[in-house]
Amino acid sequence: MLLPGPSFVTFTNGLRRGGDDVERNEERGNRPRRTRVPAVLAGLLAAGIALTGCGAAGADRSAKEDGRTAPAVPDGGRAGTGAPDAGRTGTAAPREGEQRSPSPAPDYLSTFALDVDTASYGYARRALAEGRLPDPATVRPEEFVNSFRPNYERPADNGFGVTLDGARTGRDGWSLVRVGLATRGADRSGERPPAALTFVVDVSGSMDEPGRLDLVKESLGLLVGELRDDDSIALVTFSSEAETRLPMTRVGEARDRIREVVGSLETAASTNVEAGVRTGYDTAVAGHRAGATNRVVLLSDALANTGSTEAETILARIDEERREYGITLFGVGVGSEFGDAFMEKLADRGDGQTTYVSDSAQARKVFVDQLPAHVELRARDARAQVAFDRRTVEKFRLIGYENREVADEDFRNDRVDGGEIGAGHTVTALYAVRTRPGASGTVATATVRWLDPVTRAPRERSGTVATGALTADIWGGGHDSLQLTAIAAYFADALRGGALPGAPGLGTLAGRADAIAGRSGSAVVRELAEAVRKAESLRGPAEEPSEPGGPGEGELRSGDPYS
């Protein structure tokens, strides 16, 4: 099948031209977009930004201390373009005292909802370990990138700290620009709101395979020992039908009872995910606790074959309870066969996230190291917008986040769903950017907007990155963190047949990952190197990537047929 290539927008004296390009931009303005856009950009602008280039420093702009005012953006588009009309559909009016900067032309804006999913990378590693390449439809580069935690600057309050850096890729005029977002970590011994967690466990026949129900039971057993006495747990199981095995129960003196229920789980018949989710949300609503973090945790291979097997028929219920009760969904995938797309749709609508576990080490990481800490929220409905300066930028492309896109005009529409971000999270967005020859100055201004998890008041933080941050070679010494991000992104793009500028071959990527693992002693980076090397052996040699797209300017849209 012939795959569509990326499209560009061409500007001449500020006017767009080109039939296909004009049609694409009209479609962008009129079609609805999925609201959980790439969190990547959002983090971009986070609070006082530390801009450090790969060997060169960028410009730094800080938001006001209340976090709500973004600095003026550069000329990202046609001259004279002002802020969107506050009366337009989908655009929220400014609040009293909130300053707004003019919006650049749409073709130099990138807007997305924040996201911290990592399931795609975990599932790809499982597939490669079993001697097969992952289906390109399951490969999402942002989830590969976000599986690694750079040491970004973290804020002292709720909201985000943002780090921008970048470097040259070695291709003519192309650089990688990284936007790093981080929230304040959790204090496990300090105060936090209690958690009310409803576990919805798949006990269908397909979960009988080693590494499925046995791993779920092990994971839940670990978690029970990590939760606080004031936290609550409910347990629902489903196969052809769903059953509430444990109503919402304070953990306190019930740990032994909870472990007994978990230990009694056995597989049964077919997989009716609809029944499980419906009963799970019934149980979560019945046990809803005001002031607590209320969450449904779905543990399944997501291979529905009974009842409704389409996510769309379940989404309305998930969305209703999220809006009315603030109940979010966390999806944990297991099994060598995994309904990745189905699970992701459910978690997206539930304003949650997905991850994937295939062994005991990963289960411990999720249920001991992550989930107990992440029940404390730092931001709701978080989204980011990056405005590129057309005076310095010829074209750009966000790597991944295709299904997190948000309409540019909805950036400040707080009725539009964004991402829920917990304590200690990091989110990375990586852009391929081609700068204009000899140009200097601001490359991009990034702004992140979110709602305070307690007051629901909107907050914004912003930052910029300049051409001075893009002078060093990305593979030069002293830049392991940025190199690791690039390796993960290049690897994912290669698995789905992409051709990013400056992408090394898989063998070279594996060697670079090995070098970072050797310097850092990181086991997870060593696992990445092994996965890349396995992919190379399965895929065989690949041709050197050609120049993406054709002549033109503005945003380079991904040609990925699975976006």
From TrEMBL:
Sequence segments annotated as region (Disordered): 1-35, 58-108, 534-563
PANTHER family, per database record: CALCIUM-ACTIVATED CHLORIDE CHANNEL REGULATOR, ZINC FINGER (C3HC4-TYPE RING FINGER) FAMILY PROTEIN
Name by which UniProt lists this protein: von Willebrand factor type A domain-containing protein
Domain VWFA span(s) in chain numbering: 196-371
Alphabetized Pfam families for the sequence: VWA, vWF_A, YfbK_C
Bias (Basic and acidic residues): 17-30, 554-563
InterPro entries per the UniProt record, alphabetical: CLCR (IPR051266), Uncharacterised_YfbK_N (IPR022156), VWF_A (IPR002035), vWFA_dom_sf (IPR036465), YfbK_C (IPR021908)
